[in-house]
Design a protein that fits this description.
The protein is mostly beta strands and about 140 residues long. The chain has 2 helices and 10 strands; from the N terminus they run βααβββββββββ. The protein has a 10-stranded antiparallel beta sheet. The two termini are about 20 Å apart.
């Protein structure tokens, strides 16, 4: 179990390298341009081993509902039209997600520094980073 409880609402602060990450997922240029302009918020509900992570935007919302340490089929249709086998678990103070499917090295990790939630997303050889500030 984690030393951190990620529960809370987080507002967007910044992002880096999102276009390259989306290219690695074969997202078309029009959708990449839209996504790069979005400033998503995150809402995380953590109750024991059950977590819900909501990514909220004016364009489209994405909810991830899972049990820590248990593999499940994740429908990434709203993101890139793919499905993958996903496992999310704590490694130290980082919440690590491994997504097995068509794309290699796909996944993400969340960690907290002060009141900032960090998110690093990877696919193939690309990595993007987003930072959010806890607001409640």
């Amino acid at each position: 179990m984690s030393k951190e409880n990620l529960s809370g609402y987080y507002s967007f602060v910044s992002q880096e390298n999102m276009d390259e990450y989306l290219k690695a997922l074969d997202i078309n240029i029009a959708l990449r341009k839209i996504v790069c302009l979005l400033h998503p918020d995150k809402e995380i509900i953590q109750n024991g081993n059950h977590m819900i992570i909501k990514t909220l935007t004016t364009f489209r919302n994405f909810n991830m509902d899972f049990e820590l340490g248990k593999e499940f089929e994740e429908d990434l249709g709203p993101v890139d039209g793919r499905k993958c086998q996903t496992t999310v678990a704590w490694e130290g103070d980082e919440l690590i997600c491994v997504q097995k499917g068509e794309k290699q090295n796909r996944g993400w990790k969340h960690w907290i520094v002060g009141d900032l939630l960090h998110l690093e997303m990877t696919a193939e050889g690309a990595a993007a980073k987003q930072v959010f500030r806890k607001v409640k």
